[in-house]
Design a protein that fits this description.
Blueprint lengths: L6 H13 L3 H37 L2 H7 L1 H28 L14 H13 L2 H10 L11 H27 L9 H23 L10
Amino acid sequence: MFGTHDLALFALTVLIVNATPGVDMAFTLVATLKGGIRAGLAAAAGICTGCVVHTLAAAFGLAALMAASAAAFNVIKWAGAAYLLWLAVGMWRAGLAGTAPPTEGAAAPVGAGATFRRGFLTNALNPKVALFFLALLPQFIDAAAADKTAAFLFLGAWFIVQGFTFLALFVLLVAPLARWQPRPVVARTLNIAGGSLFALLAARLALVGCRTDTCQ
């Protein structure tokens, strides 16, 4: 279909990628625990919208530019790391203060629209996702495909639909925990621990190098 092959293997690969803990799963978990199913689904929708950006980038060559240019890669990398650190600081502030700040950080009780935007940014500003799409999708496109752009878009759409389905099921699985009302000291500890997780993810992203022949 659309010049692709081994779609069953592609689906299995996508499932493994979705089930591997990372920034997207961590953000979806935090959003669900803070705001319930609605917030969790908004986070998942934002993340998958970020994948639309990466699909278009892979299809039209922007991801290849990022792989070839250290400057382009580093701009996106540092922007993504800074954003994750901003989320971490907001959670730390909430934990140390004992209350959630009204407008800052991932721990704040924000609306679905704001959660969607944050989910989108955590994904769209992650150059690792762009390079992953560039590395993964061509493996399932026939060399003789008449329209490789259409094949990229088809596989990207598949990845997005399957990814959203996985995250939605994950939200429904962890949503009952959102009804648990922990003691204040436990809530503060969770905020600090969550902030530390996002800080760790920011550090990991900041330390990523562009490992290609032309981007060192």
